[in-house]
Design a protein that fits this description.
- The complex is a heterodimer of chains A (189) and B (155).
- Chain A has 189 residues and is mostly helical.
- Chain A is 78% helix and 0% strand.
- Chain A is globular, with a radius of gyration of 21 Å.
- Chain B is mainly α.
- Chain B has 5 helices and no strands.
- The radius of gyration of chain B is 57 Å and the shape is rod-shaped.
- Classes of the chains: A mainly alpha (189), B mainly alpha (155).
- At the A-B interface, helix 1, helix 6 and helix 9 of A face helix 2 and helix 3 of B.
Chain lengths: 189, 155
């Protein structure tokens, strides 16, 4: 009896510890990627940080329900996409969305191009093209934008994007095609 | 359009090129778009890396928030106290004015009452005088005549 009572708490701790460690490892591995996607979607550093925190909080609360049907990254990305959608859908935020936003403007967003081994003229041209892509991203619908960013910023495969967004691969391809058409038209000038 | 089976077999980079080809005509343009997309990706990653590794000022923010909260509360308290005090002073002033007005009205009523009483007394005395003078007894008539005569003689 005494041995039983001594062993029981140790078993609980042993069960909880690996799960916590596993989740901590997932946070460590995917936090930057989730933050990057949210930053690209919102162009607002503070909002992206807040939504990233919320994403991992939500993931932590539902960690027991994660059955490994998709990769943790896909699961987290799905949560992040929903959070971002909910954030703008939230009626309470509509007023503030119109009046106050910390999102940087398109020119500022395109200032982050690494200099690399380019001439000054090439850099200016590249910045201008990046600004044009931001301009197109700004005009895309919510789904098109998500699909475009997952594909061309996060480098995700079509199947992964489909699982993260809950769309079929065909729909993902169609959204990508439309978004690319707009980018091409914009770059053509 | 490209063959779907071939599309799915391709590695990620080739897949993207195939996507580009679905909406493009010239290879030169493809290269330009591809380069622009690569720059866009590099730009977002650079921005994200910089923002992610920036020093956080959480404590400072909390302190500022606390300070702002305290200032807000203090200002709110001052405004509430001011409004309450103002209301009380105004109420007191009203009461004082009403008391003075009531006092004045009371005094005026008293004065009017006194005046009325005086007038009534005067009327009463006059009527008493008249009645008394009319009711002089006839037995006193000679005495009254004598008094009138005396009045006539005196200079």
């Amino acid at each position: 009896m005494a041995a039983g009572t001594a062993i029981e708490p140790m078993t609980n701790v042993a069960a909880v510890e690996p799960a916590t460690q596993e989740f901590a490892a997932i946070v460590e591995a995917h936090r930057l990627q989730i933050f990057r996607f949210l930053l690209a979607s919102t162009r607002d550093v503070d909002l992206a940080e807040t939504l990233t925190q919320e994403c991992f909080l939500k993931a932590h609360r539902n960690w027991n329900r994660f059955r490994g049907e998709s990769s943790p990254m896909t699961w987290l990305m799905r949560i992040a996409i929903n959070l971002e959608k909910d954030h703008w859908r939230n009626r309470r935020m509509q007023f503030w969305r119109k009046t106050k936003t910390n999102a940087v403007d398109l020119d500022e967003a395109s200032e982050w191009l690494p200099s690399g081994e380019r001439t000054a003229e090439q850099r200016i041209l590249a910045k201008e093209q990046v600004a044009r892509i931001w301009k197109v991203v700004d005009t895309l619908s919510g789904r098109q934008k998500t699909v475009f960013l997952l594909r061309y910023v996060e480098d995700q495969e079509l199947g992964e994007i489909a699982r993260a967004t809950g769309l079929s691969e065909g729909t993902v391809k169609a959204h990508l095609s439309r978004a690319l058409g707009k980018v091409r038209a914009e770059l053509r000038g | 359009m490209i063959d779907r089976d071939k599309f799915e077999e391709m590695p990620n980079g080739q897949e993207k090129q195939a996507e580009l080809r679905t909406v493009s005509k010239g290879t030169e343009e493809d290269v330009r778009v591809e380069q622009a997309l690569a720059d866009f990706r590099a730009s977002v990653r650079n921005w994200s890396d910089t923002a992610y590794s920036r020093p956080r000022a959480a404590e400072l923010t909390v302190r500022r928030r606390n300070w702002r909260l305290a200032a807000g509360w203090a200002l709110g308290c001052v405004l509430a106290t001011g409004a309450l005090t103002g209301g009380l002073v105004e109420h007191q002033r009203h009461q004082e004015a009403a008391r003075i007005a009531a006092q004045q009205a009371h005094q005026q009523r008293l004065a009017e009452a006194r005046q009325q009483t005086r007038q009534e007394d005067r009327k009463l005395m006059t009527s008493v005088d008249n009645e008394i003078s009319q009711k002089v007894p006839s037995s006193m008539e000679p005495l009254a005549q004598l008094m009138q005569m005396d009045d006539g003689e005196t200079p």
